[in-house]
Amino acid sequence: MRFLFKTDYAQDIRLFKHGGQVFWYGLLMALLLAAPFMVGEYVMSQLHFILIYSIVGLGLMLLVGFTGQVSLGHAAFLAVGAYTEALLQAKGVPVFISLPCAALFSAAVGLIVGLPALRLKGIYLAIATLAFNVIVEEVITRWEGLTGGNSGLHVKPVEIFGVKLDGDAGFFYLCLGLTVLCILALMNLLRSPTGRAFVAIRDSEISASCMGVNLAKYKTLSFAISAALTGIGGALYAHKVSFISPEQFTLLQSIELVTIVILGGVGFLHGAVLGAAFLIVLPQLISLAKDYLPANVGSSGLQAVVFGLVLIGFIIFEPLGLYGRWLKVRTWFELFPFYRRGMFRRQKSYMKSERLR
Amino acid sequence: MSFFRVENLGIHFGGVVAVDRVSFEVKRGEVYTIIGPNGAGKTTIFNLIGLIYPASTGQIFLEDKPLTGSVPHRIAQLGIARTFQNIELFEHATVLQNLLIGRHRHRAASLWQELLFTPAVRRAEIAAREAVEKVIDFLDLAKYRDSLVAGLPYGVRKVVELGRALATEPRLLLLDEPSSGLNPEETDDMAFWIEDIKRHLGVTVLMVEHDMNLVSRVSDRVLALNLGAVIAEGTPAEVQAHPKVIEAYLGKTA
Fold this sequence. Notes:
The complex is a heterodimer. Chain A is mainly α. Chain A has helices at residues 10-13, 19-38, 41-66, 74-90, 95-117, 122-142, 144-147, 168-190, 193-203, 205-210, 215-241, 251-264, 269-290, 302-317, 321-335, and strands spanning 153-154, 159-160, 163-164, 243-244. In chain A, strands 1-4 form a two-stranded antiparallel ribbon. In chain A, helix 9 (193-203) packs across helix 11 (215-241). Chain A is globular and about 60 Å long. The longest helix of chain B has 21 residues, at 119-139. Chain B is α/β, with parallel strands linked by helices. At the A-B interface, helix 1, helix 8, helix 9 and helix 10 of A face helix 2, helix 3, helix 4 and helix 5 of B.
């Protein structure tokens, strides 16, 4: 077990708390950088999706895991990002302008959706965002002059300074770079006053506002940042699948995005990445399993059933998600043989005052 | 110029008059206590000052500037901090993180600076940490610094909440029943701290309290309420001896 002796306040602010973290994250980074030379086309393609969904998952994690606001409408932000990117690219706007535009436009839409969040909570907010998802989907379907309606839009590969990133490696490095940037930005945010204000809103709105946290400002801000990240994810998604149409951004997509957050572990940035990886890998496992199952079991509905079961299983048996499970395993080894079962159980908060609002 | 003044403050919920035209003034640097039987409207006055309820009548002034009509988070930014009767801490955060949220009103960096964690943000974070460590020292919380609040005993949580309010560096501190749920020893500590907050930190304290030992030990002046209305004001001894106060607590002699 590692003991950290602290001699300086800066040690608590550092991104890497000790040499071990530097080593393991460095190793992961080195492996990822070398990946295009080591794995085949198919695995590469899956890695693209994992990185794209990680960015989206990070956005949703900020909102759900750190600010405590529910959203069942994040596929709409994904759509806004994807269509903004597609339309700007068609106009010949270079990617280093169109990508920030996709993020900013998504953020602007996020600000508007954040407004009902000031009055709604929990399930009511979930329904409002769900309605928003349906509205955006419908707008995209009907506004044929702009979006091509149900016939969709074709998106060309990313082009930077005349160099086409149509190979797997180039696009992979773009996704990887953006994922790392998003993670760093969120880590920075979470160790500064804004991030603490988000967490304060999640834990107790009344005392957050008594500490001077402007609830309206920070809730909408959280929606905007979350939407911006999702918009970036959407733009990359558009390039990846090279064809976008309304049926890719339905409520089911939103639910898949929420699944990332829940499976990964609500309240951990690691969770967003782990959840994204799980979401991409699971269908592959299911299709592998299909070869061994009777033909009528392995039909198209199997995936939805397995997803549902996995989600329910996690909520019941491991509410802390994959990252929470990893933390438990790690603690078990660190403390061996002194690990107790109740160590991660959340204590019931007693004497909780009646909510003032 | 008065430091903090409440004039004709009142609120009714439907037909129930919870606070009925209460006026009082708190002088800079004193400990001013509001007492009264259950349901007298003490906590409601705090919620009115914190603008959590909109006042039906009356005005609140901090240094002659009206607070009524503002919004709750502005109150904290003006330097009024409060604790809650039943503790409203951030459960899934450590004591340190809870206290750091108290520094929220002193933040200066923009969102972009925070996303990049510029040197200015870093310096501000270290400064916030130093300020919080002073509070930790003051309240003797060092051994709980990195513990999750959810796992702490009630008495400690009460102190953490006091610390979080102090971390805002308030000018006026509102304490809602600081001794409720504490054992005699902890209540004794609380009395020491309230005296120290007044003497060494120079913070004015407005307090709601039931424990008359604590009240008479730390308060400069006391206001007694019953059924939302003022029945007596004065030094602790004067108020305790006031016939109306005795009547409110013990009932009329037959």
